[in-house]
Every structure is written in C-alpha cells, then in structure tokens.
Amino acid sequence: MYRPPRPPRPIRGPARRIASGTLAGARHAIDHVDDAVVVLAGVRRHLVGAVRHGKHLAGLPVRDGDREAHVLSRARSVAARVAVPGDTADALMRTLISDACRQQAQSGATGPRFPAPMITPPASVRLSLSPAAAGNRLLRLLPPPRRWKPLLSRLPRASHEPLAERALGRALASLDADTLAIVHDRRLGISVDDLGLEWVFTWNGERLRACREPAEATVRGSATDLALLASRLEDADTLFFQRRLVLTGDTELGLTVRNLLDRLPWEDLPLGLRVLLHRSSSLLRAAREAHRNG
After folding, report:
1. HEC per residue, 180-204
2. Is the pLDDT of residue 90 over 80?
3. For residue 72, what are the domain limits?
4. Which of 116, 209, 233, 258 would bridge 108 by S-S if both were Cys, CB 3.0 to 4.6 A apart?
C-alpha cells in the first residue's frame, strides 16, 4: 500500500533563522540575475534591429538555418563550460531566436529594399535618447558587482576556489622556473572586495595550490578592475598608480607580485577563456561608467 512521504520536520531556533536568511539572500540575488537576463535580452533586440536593416539591404530572408545552428552550437559549448544542461541552453536560445524572427518579420524584413520604420514602443517605455544614451540606460539596469556580494559571500570556497586556482595556475605554468623561484612557498592573496571573494595561493615548485593560511601579501581591487587586468584591457602600472588595485602585507613580496602580474602570459590561456575575459571585462567597464554617469 502506497504511503506518501512525510513532510520534512520544520526546523526551529537559530537554524531556522539562518535558513531563512540564506533563502532570502539567494532569492534577492536571483532577482538581480533575472533583471540582468531581461536587460541583456533588450540589448540583443537592439542588435537584431541592426541585423534586420542589413537583411533589408541584402534582400535576405528572415530565417537563416546555418546562422541558427551556429548560435545553438555556441550556446551548447558555453553551457558545457559552466555546468548548464544542454537542453536548458537550447531552450533559452530557441526562445531568443524565435523572438528575433518575430521582431524581423513584424518589421517587414523581407519587404522592399529600403529601411522599414522601427516599431514604436509604448509611451511608458519610449526613450527620446540617442543610441549611446539608450545603451547607457540599459547598462545601468545591470546590477553592479556589489549587489552579488550577499550571495557570493555565502558560497563555500570549494565552489569557486578551484576555478581561480586553475586559471592562475595555467598562466603561471608558462613562466620560467627562475622567475617563479622567488615566490616559492610564499602565500599570495587575491581579494575581490566588491564581491566578497578572497583566495590565498602558494607555488610549490610544480603547481599553484590554494591554501587556508593567511596571505603574506594580497592584491585587492574591484571585480571590474581585476577583470580589466586579467584581460589586458588595462595594464598593472595604471591600475596600481590610480589606486584601483592595492597591495597589502609584505612590501617586498607585494612588489614581486606586481612584477609577476605584468609578466603573466595571459595569451597562453585557452582562446574561449580569453574571449570571455575580454567581453565580460568590457561589459563590466561600460556598466560601471554608465552607473557613474547616471
């Protein structure tokens, strides 16, 4: 005879308060992620408008099977790297592709070879802005890194530390042994202040390893500035001179770390990771400027 499972016994006291706080923090972060997804969908629609105009001029149809297959393939590739199920990526991209096709069809993409008028949005969302200003408005809707801090600070190190260890370790492995000898068994820290993330690493002569002991010297900065450094969109001297990156702890070791950062061969990282770093860094920088100018 089938018996339905008993509902879990409710927890009480401090454990309940901790669970409630964790749930509220996670939901708050999810809300901001959802906001960002919708904003990026809006940015995508602006770009689809440019595609629509190009198809007008070239007399091309709305649907492009090869292009759609390429979009789906790229999405699956990215999904595999970030542990997202392939069918989830497929469903998301097919929804975006369908939206783009509807947008182009409604705009008369297969009509005469001259620009068709853009669909007029409702008055409540109509923007009398230049394209650059409209882009800034969209970027300001992206939650800044500090909004992610309540959630990320609760994540266990095991969820993000191996990724940082692997990326930095791969870059360090390309340096010669004499260069790395000066930081052998020294504890070097990286602190992403606005995300509440901090790691400590040590070079054992063969590979970079994360450790839980206090760092002897730490590079501190915002997620945006550290991303700009990693992607080589800005150099270490500029970031340190402007105090956007700061070294704390052992002064001599800190200067050594600074020199190492300049010599790290980021070009040896996989192409996909370099492209991701470059694009995400550019987006973070543009969003920060949009927030400052708003």
Report:
1. HHCCECCEEEEEECCCCEEEEEEEC
2. yes
3. 14-126
4. 116
Q: Which two tokens stand for residue 87?
A: 């069918």
Nearest-CA neighbor of 262 among 186, 171, 194, 183?
A: 171
Sheet holding 187-192, edge to edge: 208-210, 197-203, 187-192, 217-221, 245-249
Task: Report yes or no on 97 lying in a domain.
Answer: yes
- pLDDT tops 60 at residue 129: no
Residue 1 falls within a domain, yes or no?
no
What pTM was computed for the model?
0.54
Rg (CA), the chain: 24
How many helices and strands in the chain, by DSSP H and E?
11, 5
208: nearest Cα among 260, 130, 244: 260
What is the full DSSP assignment across 74-100? Answer: HHHHHHHHTT--HHHHHHHHHHHHHHH
pLDDT of residue 200 exceeding 90, the answer is yes
Asked if residue 203 and residue 118 are part of one domain, the reply reads: no
CA 131, CA 145: separation in Å to the nearest integer? 25
- Give the pLDDT of residue 273: 67
Tens of pLDDT, residues 163-176: 888 878 877 777 77
Q: What are phi and psi of 219, to 5 degrees?
A: -95, 120
